[in-house]
């Protein structure tokens, strides 16, 4: 796949890579490859659509902190449930590996750039203000008194009923003054408290962001206007965070930002609600207007997604035309894309349209996400292949139900490939297959191909086991249980990895064909 930097005469200082929907792992998997590749060209930070304050915890892990294990970094270092995505696990681990032994100027930094809230509601500012007070050794009692019952802040009905919002109350207004005073005090104390200052500042700004959002929720507007206003306020807070991150990172190198297309696009975001056309400036529109050509945006485009139930697009749409020439992900300059129809929008996927393409620098189009069934179809297209799916009916153990076994010929004893979706407790748990939607392709490659791939023969696997992360996506590794027999495996190979998958499948399939033909010859000889 073409490198992103090939699309630009000068690398942008803030390079935005968008996804058209949340939940399709292929975009996150390609994002990981893109960012680690760009790190080789001087990019030193990544910012995700996740709470900025929470991101401090994830970055502690990335920087090698022994106090933050991976499980905590995933559970507390992301918002919106994004820590559960297997590709985000890989991102943190790969960044931490990169940083090991490198000087500060070359280390990678993880950032969130969202505010600590959802569109449908926001918490109180208590935890953020308390963190700042603890850093400054200030009393927190006034904050606790003014915040009071957390339920006053988290009431979901308050977003749609301004009279129920606490944002216009005297307590909220007093807290906004306290938050502003704490920011001033932080600057006054900076010369004496440099260590930990940046984290305290992020928490102070998070408190300000929450209070701003609650104030916006209290505005006496119609429901439609309130939605547009709150969406705009959230994007404005994102833009403020992105600009602050760029200010922090400017001396070290450019930044990659990854989020939904609607937060990164240059044009205004629009929506029709109750017959009213609404619009607001997204974070990308704001940042682009201030940074000019230092900001570049590559919007994401998707053909099909088995995981999300999204079918292949009509050929007359932007997405349909983009995948006519290839089944692999690719970048296309926006200026090279001809006008096409807009795909139906059903809120699982935000399709390309004239404005999105016209205001983008390029499009990353992924023809399809890859799930176990999609990969199985690819294997079944090979000559003479038959599939057995483990089930109760064929006597398979319950823990294997749904796993797929691929054979050539009548002999079912030795599959040349399998697709499994379950751990085997006490034997095969290293790939963490019990994570939601995770599967693994296993391939019988034989001794010669195994040694070519890994640099040692299958019999020496146990001496090298510690070198491999068997749960990492998109990575060819020895099979954690059957490497001694020449098996390799790949957890959730993404669409960008399909050429390599096909090459390895060809090796495994050829071995199976050869075994079958030899068995046929032996049987014929015995009959004679």
Automatic annotation (TrEMBL):
It comes from the Bacteria. Residues 373-519 form the DUF6194 domain. InterPro entries: DUF6194 (IPR045676), Emycin_Estase (IPR007815), Hydrolase/PRTase-associated (IPR052036). PANTHER family: ESTERASE, PUTATIVE (AFU_ORTHOLOGUE AFUA_1G05850)-RELATED. This is Erythromycin esterase family protein. It comes from Micromonospora fiedleri.
């Amino acid at each position: 796949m073409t490198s992103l930097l090939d699309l630009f005469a000068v690398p942008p200082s803030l390079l935005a890579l968008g996804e058209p929907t949340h939940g399709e792992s292929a975009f996150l998997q390609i994002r990981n490859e893109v960012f680690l590749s760009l790190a080789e060209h001087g990019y030193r930070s990544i910012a995700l659509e996740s709470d900025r304050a929470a991101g401090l915890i994830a970055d502690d892990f990335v920087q090698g902190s022994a106090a933050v294990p991976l499980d905590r970094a995933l559970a507390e270092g992301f918002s919106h449930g994004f820590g559960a995505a297997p590709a985000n696990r890989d991102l943190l681990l790969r960044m931490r590996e990169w940083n090991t032994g490198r000087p500060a100027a070359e280390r990678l930094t993880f950032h969130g750039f969202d505010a600590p809230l959802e569109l449908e509601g926001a918490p109180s500012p208590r935890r953020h203000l308390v963190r700042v007070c603890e850093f400054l050794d200030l009393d927190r009692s006034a904050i606790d008194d003014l915040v009071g019952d957390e339920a006053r802040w988290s009431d979901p009905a308050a977003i749609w009923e301004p009279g129920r919002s606490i944002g216009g109350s005297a307590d909220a207004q007093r807290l906004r003054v306290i938050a502003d005073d704490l920011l001033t005090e932080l600057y006054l104390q900076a010369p004496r408290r440099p260590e930990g200052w940046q984290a305290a500042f992020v928490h102070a700004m998070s408190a300000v962001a929450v209070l701003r959002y609650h104030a916006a929720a209290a505005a006496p507007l119609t429901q439609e206007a309130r939605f547009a206003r709150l969406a705009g306020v959230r994007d404005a807070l994102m833009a403020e965070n992105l600009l602050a991150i760029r200010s922090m990172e400017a001396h070290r190198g450019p930044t990659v930002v990854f989020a939904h297309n609607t937060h990164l696009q240059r044009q205004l975001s629009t929506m029709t609600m109750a017959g009213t056309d609404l619009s607001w400036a997204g974070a990308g529109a704001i940042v682009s207007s201030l940074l000019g050509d230092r900001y570049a945006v590559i919007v994401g485009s998707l053909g099909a997604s088995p995981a999300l139930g999204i079918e292949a697009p009509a050929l007359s749409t932007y997405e349909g035309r983009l995948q006519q020439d290839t089944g692999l992900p690719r970048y296309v300059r926006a200026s090279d894309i001809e006008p096409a129809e807009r795909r139906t929008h059903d809120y699982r996927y935000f399709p390309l349209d004239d404005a999105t393409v016209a205001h983008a620098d390029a499009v990353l189009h992924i023809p399809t996400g890859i799930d176990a069934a999609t990969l199985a179809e690819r294997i079944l297209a090979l000559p003479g292949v038959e599939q057995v799916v483990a089930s109760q009916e064929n006597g398979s153990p319950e823990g294997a139900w749904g796993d797929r076994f691929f054979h050539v010929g009548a002999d079912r004893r030795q599959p040349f490939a399998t697709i499994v979706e379950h751990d085997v407790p006490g034997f095969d748990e290293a790939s963490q297959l019990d994570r939601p939607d995770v599967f693994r392709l296993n391939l019988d490659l034989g001794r010669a191909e195994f040694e070519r791939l890994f640099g040692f023969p299958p019999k020496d696997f146990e001496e090298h086991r510690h070198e491999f992360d068997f749960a990492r996506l998109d990575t060819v590794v020895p099979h954690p249980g059957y490497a001694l027999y020449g098996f390799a495996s790949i957890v959730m190979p993404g669409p960008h990895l399909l050429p390599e998958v096909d090459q390895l499948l060809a090796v495994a399939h050829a071995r199976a064909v050869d075994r079958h033909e030899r068995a046929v010859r032996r049987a014929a000889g015995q009959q004679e």
